Amino acid sequence: MKASDWLRAINAACEKHFPDKPRRQEVLRETRVKVRVEIGPTMFADFFFREETGRTDYALIVSGQRQYGLDNLGGWHEHPVGKPDTHVPIDPPSPEDAIRQLLAAASHLASS
Predict the structure, then answer these.
(1) What's the burial of 11, exposed, middle or buried (CB within 10 Å: 0-12/13-18/19+)?
(2) 3-state DSSP: the chain helix, strand, coil percent, rounded to 5?
(3) Given this model, what pLDDT does residue 92 score?
(4) Which H or E run includes 8?
(5) CB under 8 A, 24+ apart: contacts of 81-87
(6) What 8-state DSSP symbol labels residue 21?
(7) Secondary structure of residue 70 in the 3-state scheme
(8) Contact, 46 vs 26, CB < 8 A?
(9) How far, CA to CA in Å, does 109 sit from each of 8, 9, 28, 43, 63?
(10) Is 75 left (phi over 0), alpha (psi -120 to 50) or beta?
(11) Is 111 helix (H, G, I), strand (E, B) or coil?
């Protein structure tokens, strides 16, 4: 997948799931992109893609610490809420699915 295609998919999912949240994107290089969505005063989501390697990261950060994540370093896995250093193998998510899972984690954390 090209970085531009991934960025389009992430932006479409963000428009759908975070329509009123501040979002910024950085094109670190033509083949590396990062998107950050401010969810609340101490909570944000970071999404990263590197075309050369296919490396993809989806992370929910609260008060400067990852509280949930999905990435494919060493194979696709989830870092569950409450155990963010744990690796639970998963099937590769689409950007839309990854954002849905991240939103569920954010909702769970906000209600805790």
Answers:
(1) middle
(2) 30, 40, 30
(3) 96
(4) helix 3-17
(5) 81/105, 81/108, 81/109
(6) S
(7) strand
(8) no
(9) 28, 25, 30, 10, 12
(10) left
(11) helix
Match 């932006």 to its residue by tokens: 11
The predicted model scores a pTM of: 0.91
Q: What amino acid is encoded at 72 in this protein?
A: N
Tokens of 62: 């609260």
Residue given tokens 């050369």 in the structure block: 52
As given in the structure block, the two tokens for residue 112 are 């805790």
The predicted-structure confidence for 29-57, as pLDDT tens digits, reads as follows: 889 999 999 999 999 999 999 999 999 99
Name the token pair of 65: 């610490």
Single-letter code of the amino acid located at 67: Q
With a CB cutoff of 8 Å and minimum separation 6, the contacts of 67 are 60, 61, 81, 84, 105, 109
Tokens of 92: 């590769």
